[in-house]
Amino acid sequence: AYASPIIATFGPARHLITQTRTHIVGVSPGDGRELWRVPFTTDYEQNIITPVVAGGLLIYSGLSKPTVGARVVQDGGAWKLQEVWRNEDVPMYMSSPVASGGVLYGLTHRNRGQFFAVDVATGKTLWTSPPRQGENAALVASGTVLLATTTEGELVVMPMNKQGHGVVRKYTLAESPIWAHPAFTAAGVLVKDAETLSFWTF
Q1: For strand 125-128 and strand 137-142, is the pairing parallel, antiparallel, or unpaired?
Q2: pLDDT of residue 202
Q3: pTM, two decimal places
Q4: Which residues contact 76 (CB under 8 A, 6 or more apart)?
Q5: 180 and 194 in contact (C-beta within 8 Å)?
Q6: Do 123 and 102 meet the contact criterion of CB atoms below 8 Å apart?
């Protein structure tokens, strides 16, 4: 699996959560003890999406799987996931989403790549962008905008809002696809595309 682990607190316990090749798991970060696990497999057994915690929910997805919001609850001394909502409209393959202001922003692999916004509390799709945005996008929430570097070699700046998709500005950063996540510094951003490493100032 390619997902990164996250740390989140549910009830009295801290959970280290990640997607493995065949499960979503939560373990105790203090001693590695498994707290819970849920079977989760996708085509090619590639679980790539890093889970997100927002609004008290654990949100996860995978290739051709719905995006799901679930509570991590304790029942009779045992931890389990309690599904709150599922959204069939915006499955995710490689691009991990971000949450800000009660909204989940991401890129679904449907229609050759569409940016989307989903209400964290209800799972309702708020908007989707036009298709063909790219195979993958690395997303960063910054202030009131969403920054996305794409496999089209672009940096897309989008306003974060519930009303609809928009683009503030697009910058061409590379002539080859950008797969790696950008690295932000106080002075600018490091971008690794398929052929080069570049530094862009603000």
Answers
A1: unpaired
A2: 79
A3: 0.95
A4: none
A5: no
A6: no
